[in-house]
Amino acid sequence: MKITDLLKKDTIILSLQSTEKANVIDELVSKLDEAGRLSSREGFKEAILAREAQSTTGIGEGIAIPHAKTSAVDTPAIAFGVSKQGVDYESLDGQNAHLFFMIAATEGANNAHLETLSRLSSFLMDANFRETLLHASSEDEVIAAIDAKEREEEGEEEVEQPSEGLILAVTACPTGIAHTYMAADSLKAKAKELNMNVKVETNGSTGVKNALTAEDIENAAGIIVAADKQVEMERFKGKKIIQVPVARAIREPQMLLEKASRGEGSTYQGNGGSDKSEESGSTEKKGNAFYKHLMNGISNMLPFVVGGGLLIAISFLFGIDQDGGINNPFAKVLNQIGAENAFQLLVPVLAGYIAMSIADRPGLAPGMVGGYLAFTANAGFLGGLIAGFLAGYVVLGIKRALKGLPQSLEGLKPVLLYPFLGMLITGLIMVYVINGPVEAINTGLQNWLGGFGTGSLVFLGILLGGMMAIDMGGPINKAAFAFGIAMIDAGNYAPHAAVMAGGMVPPLGLALATTIFRKKFTQQERNTGKTCYVMGLTFITEGAIPFAAADPLRVIPAAVVGAATAGALTMAFHIKLLAPHGGIIVFPFVQGSALLYLLAVVIGAIVTALLVGVLKKTKSE
């Protein structure tokens, strides 16, 4: 199938009117829709934006290739647009984009379609071809240029390279349509220029092409893995590899090839581990590795936060009594599922999958056990973070220590030695080193707050509100909540009103931030933000944990300031709360103005949202 079977004159725009990324996407989507290629314009646009949220498709060199494979596409197609002045498309090289190819693939796109699209990606690596497209004066010229390029490339096949001095590479992107092949072509073109031998395996939507053989790997001078998704790694065990995101192979092929030719990289130990988290020859930064492990924990924890939180929220809708209990039997079951089961798994799951990201499957069990120990010791999600990283690196250490065991014991490592030693060491450190100090801090905070009830109400409101946002369900949060309950028992209903307001603000503030400052968040974060509206309104502070864990230095201060503001206003408005719980369902139990109480929460959420918007950087990964 030819590229011009997908790109027609009615899907070409020779002069884009848009000057911003979002508008370019909208203009190209509209062109495809007007040409009758889409079954759902909004569905396709949503899929395009979801792909952009994963990583920008502005690949550099003046090119952007927004693409999506979705059921919203009726007929596979390509839309092409030109912007002579250029558009800031958040491209990887920081330069404006001038050529835009929007790829619309059907959900069940066959190999012929996908191979055609990958061929287009390859053509765009030719600077002369790009210039021809940029200066085309008619749709016919564009079609003719692509036809000529296809005829020029016809008959070219992958040439088998000599094994001596051979550099190997694997490229893979999540969608497998554009970046995979552009990275491969970038490496091959630069290798040809540098007179190097290179063989590149592509892991695209059509499957693995030009697969590396055992002989290739055995004789390789160096190995590059440029991938944003999981690829087969066990075949590289014992070999030096350079692991980078796929975009790095497009932008920096010469640097990667030269490093590989010198045999630089980290020795792959198997099961996801290398001999060092960062070696002199590795191109992955330590901060990126930390973020990757953290995101693995958060993404696996998120379903428990959302599902459990919504179950708790629904249970509250059935009503609570004056003692804060749920008096409806079915509501009690919902609350039990959400609060006593799903939410109790948050910290263990977070810790387990952080450890698994670091040490592969052997890290999962020690991480979950360490996380559960943190949970039972009231260490909160911060304790879970410590447990996850601790377990992961403990298991990596165990792997290294057991490398010298006889081959006959190899089968015992994953089923016996790794889980036993991993749980033992992680558990002992958590029990004897981590959990004790956290429990002491928690108890000390509660005792200190107990003697603070007669101080300045506004200052107390600032303190209690801010504490609710510091660790969002952890020991500091629980200390403030316990103090509020104790004050209700003592007949002082003002402190708990500040506690409740402070607990509502973090998820509500983050929900507002994801709505107002959309470019600051990924698509997954924006989706999570929607659920935070419900969680915030029902006093589920933990809804903000994924945001806080992912970006603590920006999100936590913003949440604390907003929550403290709400707590201070609650005290200033002389609001009192009789019910020992939170959320809009307890507003009927407010003494004072419920409207002013709502205003205090709204102002606090706005403060948090604005601070997050100012502090966070625009997502362009």
Largest sheet: 7 strands, mixed
Instruction: Tally the beta strands.
Output: 15
Shape: globular
Give the spatial strand order of the biggest sheet.
9-8-7-10-11-12-13
How much of the sequence lies in strands comes to 5-15%
Mean pLDDT metric: 81
* Share of residues in helices: 55-70%
Q: Structural class of the helix and strand makeup?
A: alpha/beta
Our count of helices gives 22
Question: Alpha-carbon distance between the termini?
Answer: 33 Å
Can you walk me through this structure?
The protein is built from 22 helices and 15 strands. The protein has 621 residues and is α/β, with parallel strands linked by helices. A 7-stranded mixed sheet has the order 9-8-7-10-11-12-13. Strands 1, 2, 3, 4, 5 and 6 form a 6-stranded mixed sheet that branches. A two-stranded antiparallel sheet has the order 14-15. The longest helix has 39 residues. It is globular and about 85 Å long.
Keywords for this structure?
621 residues, alpha/beta, seven-stranded mixed β-sheet, six-stranded mixed β-sheet, 22 helices, 12% strand, phosphoprotein, transmembrane helix, phosphotransferase system, transmembrane
Chart the SSEs and their pairings.
Layout: E1 12-13, H1 21-34, H2 41-54, E2 58-60, E3 63-64, E4 67-70, E5 77-87, E6 97-106, H3 111-123, H4 127-134, H5 139-153, E7 166-172, H6 179-193, E8 197-204, E9 207-209, H7 214-219, E10 222-227, E11 240-244, H8 246-251, H9 253-261, E12 266-270, E13 273-274, H10 286-317, H11 329-342, H12 346-359, H13 364-376, H14 380-401, H15 412-450, H16 457-470, H17 475-489, H18 494-516, H19 523-537, H20 545-550, H21 552-572, E14 576-577, E15 590-591, H22 594-615
Parallel strand pairs: 1-5, 3-6, 4-6, 7-8, 7-10, 10-11
Antiparallel strand pairs: 2-3, 5-6, 8-9, 11-12, 12-13, 14-15
